[in-house]
Amino acid sequence: MIDGCTGVKCRKAELIWCWLDVESVAFNRGFYSVDVKYFYRVSVDAFAGVGRPTEVSGLATFDKRVILFGSEGNAKIFSSTNHCEDPEAMKKASLPRAVLEAVDPICLNVKLMENCQDQQAVYSYDLSDVPEAVSAYFDDDLVLDGGQKRVYCTLGQFSIIRLERDTQLVMPCYDFCMPEKECIGGSDDNPCDLFRRINFPVDEFFPPVAGDYTDYRELRDSTCR
Fold it and tell me: How many domains does the chain have?
């Protein structure tokens, strides 16, 4: 379908999954590198002739590395959810956990280009490199090599990456608190009394202004992929 089309238009971009890996930074105690690999499902409309466009979905990936402070700790942390099938995970029992919060990306641009030999060598993938859960997210089998044309996409991704480490804290504890007041609603005889206690929904009748929205410039990471 991509080889026979004359143009593409972005329809939707979804963040499927993210792979994270934490490694200590040499000669910089307390700091760790976090490698993140984003997996996206990008859907485009492929135009061929004067007929209706055909929706085509493909896989896009992006790699990112950040350096964060995660403090130091020699205690190895294990839990019932961790298993010993992965030897590398057993070696990282004392490292902090990397956590990523992200939203679906914004599809900024898509471009249809000829797939030359040099690009095939750089952007060639192996199906074994794609996690099975990511491949199962698509309705059809992925085609990761060959073809005369290729679709390139530019995505805007907002995400927050942080390091977490367990620690012991002393918190004040109080005894059980029993409710002392009774919640009295409107009676069956006069339901208007209950309605009068509800505030008038002003926001539902007036559209929000620009100042009501969050300034996305304050987010931790807003990178154009």
Answer: 1
